[in-house]
Specification:
By secondary structure, this protein is α/β, with parallel strands linked by helices. The chain contains 3 helices and 5 strands. Strands 1-2-3-4-5 form a 5-stranded mixed sheet.
């Protein structure tokens, strides 16, 4: 089994995620979201079209970021969130918590 490290790039104010979001990589997601917030972005969009896996650590990081953004009148938007990641959301009920842009 080949583990895909997480890479994050910024394209047109969207954080494009590639790989897996788990215990070993969730800090990269937190740092990228914090960077966007520190740049003054209230709406942070995450493109999940190339994410192959998200575990509870990754979901927890996204919940915390969503609460932080919503507290300031913003939001975290999950774009192209489907496949394995979407099943993780449905299992936890977070599909009703997050803003999802298919």
């Amino acid at each position: 089994m080949v583990i895909s490290p997480l890479t994050i790039t910024i394209s047109a104010d969207v954080l494009v995620l590639v790989g897996e979001i788990d215990l070993a990589t969730s800090h990269l997601l937190v740092e990228a979201i914090d960077g966007a917030i520190n740049r003054g972005e209230q709406m942070v969009i995450l493109d999940f079209s190339k994410v192959t896996f998200v575990n509870s650590t990754g979901l927890g990081a996204m919940v915390a970021a969503t609460k932080r953004l919503r507290g300031g009148g913003g939001d975290l938007v999950l774009r192209s969130f489907r496949g394995i990641p979407a099943s993780a959301l449905a299992t936890t009920g977070l599909d009703r918590f997050f803003t999802i842009d298919s």
